[in-house]
Specification:
This protein is an alpha/beta fold. It has two domains: 2-249, Rossmann fold (3-Layer(aba) Sandwich); 263-353, Gyrase A, domain 2 (2-Layer Sandwich), CATH 3.30.1360. It is 42% helix and 18% strand. The strands form two sheets. The chain has a seven-stranded parallel sheet, with helices on both faces. A four-stranded antiparallel sheet has the order 8-9-11-10, with helices on one face. Helix 2 crosses helix 3 and helix 3 packs parallel to helix 6 (127-138). The longest helix has 17 residues, at 232-248. It starts with a helix and ends in a 6-residue tail after the last strand. Bound molecules: guanosine-5'-diphosphate and magnesium ion. Magnesium ion (MG) is lined by residues 61-62, 98, 147.
Amino acid sequence: MSVRLEQLARDIAAGQRPALARALSLAERDPAAAATLLAKLAERLGRAHVVGITGPPGAGKSTLVGALVRHLLQADRRVAVLAVDPSSPVSGGALLGDRFRIGELAADERSFVRSTATRGSLGGLTRAARQMVQLMDAAGYDLVLVETVGTGQSEIDVAQLADSLLVVFPPGLGDELQAIKAGILELADLLVVTKSDTAGATLACQALQGVLPMWRNAPPIHPVSALSGGGIAELVAALLQRVQDAAAKPRPLADSMAPPFVPEAVFETLREQLERRLPFLAGSGLRIALTNAAAGQGPSRIELELCLAAGGDSYVLGVAVGALVVLAGDAGLSCDIGPIDPAGRALRLGLTPVRPPQA
Ligand SMILES: Nc1nc2c(ncn2[C@@H]2O[C@H](COP(=O)(O)OP(=O)(O)O)[C@@H](O)[C@H]2O)c(=O)[nH]1
Ligand SMILES: [Mg+2]
């Protein structure tokens, strides 16, 4: 398994699209294995500009994504697309219609299109969807476009994931007011009114314009028509400006250097190293478990429990903890060791990334 993941990681890093496709399926099927894979790709993460595109069903998101991909390819950017649509049947792989519309673009080696029907418990993004975005990032795409159907939670999730969030409005009754109520507008970096070739578009722009002074740093409104092509070039220019600004913005050293903190991935790496250094652990009856497996939001701490089976030698526990503290230190994590249980058979370990003090 590990050897196969090693090879898969190499193929992804080499830009092989079939390898990426396999890895995305792996994330859907087995997020723990995908976390191990991502750990192997850690130094490639954090390069892509992630663009969230969200809005109600039928707003014209997929059509817009197709137009954006076409323009971004013309601007010589490599683009990956992940369409997350929980309303589509989970079984069929979903979004056949969308595939048709943006599918023709997938013929270009510099693009990659994938849809997934995975759904989180609150209608938000699943861990699998997040991992799929990271895998596309690791594959070297300049931009990763993530299309999500607005469910409230999915918008909040994608806003956290995205470097730029496009909130898409179709011209029509009430949609924009609903969105304003839900606070979605405040998450937007760019507001897009689609189907500007249709009658209600001007009204929708006016309705949005009317509420913009309500908060500072109001995002610009972009009326676009994927049909006529109107406004698309301007929207792409605004997006590329954001990509450029984000690249130029000096990030804190720790953030720009360190890959995103994925507890499962860090844990898997530590465990692999520990098993390599201390092969006798395999038969020792020691169990090491991650007790705060990420609830998605990327907790900045890992909690482990080490537990000896009956008959296990408590000396093993001590050796394992000592080795973990050293390995964690090498990985830039500081350790706090919890109290050992009275029988000397179990203890907890907390690991927290060490950040250099901000200049
Ligand atoms: N008139 C017009 N129709 C559009 C435009 N963009 C999308 N549509 C139509 O709106 C419908 C929904 O589009 P789609 O991209 O699937 O929306 P999504 O559900 O938000 O992904 C489709 O019938 C599209 O053909 C546009 O710019 N102008
Ligand atoms: Mg769609």
